[in-house]
Amino acid sequence: MSAEPELAIQVMSLPPPLVVPPGAYPPDVGIDARLLQGLEEHAASSPHCEVGGLLFGQADVGGSRLQLMVTGALPAESFDAGPLHLTFTHETWNRLRRRRAAEYAGDLVVGWYHTHPGLGVFLSGLDLGLHARIFAVQPWCVALVLDPVRRRRAFFWPRGDQVHRCAEIVGAAGWPTGGRRDGIPDAENRH
């Protein structure tokens, strides 16, 4: 996946500063079960070709733990893709920027998602390069990788030369993180 950084940064307008303390733990990522199902359906719609898009929501810091709530997603359109690559074109970024302004103007871009059909869930060297150039400007941004063939998924938080796997909390629509891990419903949905 590649893009022009200046176009991608325009997609992510800068919110008020959120200070992530040095040495912060990987974030807990909360996501609505219906939204996650929609992302899995999007992934399954193309079992032989990568697909992807942007993730929206809120971020908060509680102590040394970053907490994210993914509340929405926009699938990318007008991209170049194959079984081993996904490239966001200028037109992809332009469409995402317009749709974000209309549908998610009050939310942060909290990351991106894409598929690795039949390959497992990991961040490739190209994925890490894209994340570093486009998304790492915001310290809360994560990458969700879905494998629709193996039916696996994982959120990752690349920081410098390390890649951390995030705790995933699947919940009902609108459940609050409240800055506390103990307030998360249905802890058995953690992956």
Polypeptide structure, described:
By secondary structure, the protein is of the alpha/beta class. The protein has a single domain, classed as Cytidine Deaminase, domain 2 (3-Layer(aba) Sandwich). It is 23% helix and 36% strand. It contains 4 helices and 10 strands; from the N terminus they run αβαββββαβαββββ. The chain has helices at 5-11, 33-44, 90-103, 125-135, and strands spanning 25-32, 52-62, 65-75, 79-82, 85-88, 108-115, 142-147, 152-159, 162-165, 167-171. An 8-stranded mixed sheet has the order 9-8-7-6-2-3-1-10. A two-stranded antiparallel ribbon has the order 4-5. β7 (142-147) and β8 (152-159) form a beta hairpin. α1 (5-11) runs parallel beside α3.
Query: Helical residue percent?
Result: 10-25%
Class by SSE composition: alpha/beta
Radius of gyration: 15 Å
Give the CATH class: Alpha Beta
Provide mean pLDDT, rounded.
Answer: 79
Shape: globular
Low-confidence segments = 1-12, 175-191
CATH superfamily: Cytidine Deaminase, domain 2
CATH architecture tag: 3-Layer(aba) Sandwich
Strand content: 35-45%
For the record, the count of structural domains works out to 1
What's the helix count?
A: 4
CATH topology: Cytidine Deaminase, domain 2
**Distance linking N and C termini:** 26 Å
Record field, number of beta strands: 10
Q: H/E series, N to C? A: HEHEEEEHEHEEEE
- Spatially, the strands of the biggest sheet line up as 9-8-7-6-2-3-1-10
What kind of sheet is the major sheet?
A: 8 strands, mixed
Map the helices and strands.
Blueprint lengths: L4 H7 L13 E8 H12 L7 E11 L2 E11 L3 E4 L2 E4 L1 H14 L4 E8 L9 H11 L6 E6 L4 E8 L2 E4 L1 E5 L20
Parallel strand pairs: 1-3, 1-10, 6-7
Antiparallel strand pairs: 2-3, 2-6, 4-5, 7-8, 8-9
Helix pairs in contact: 1-3
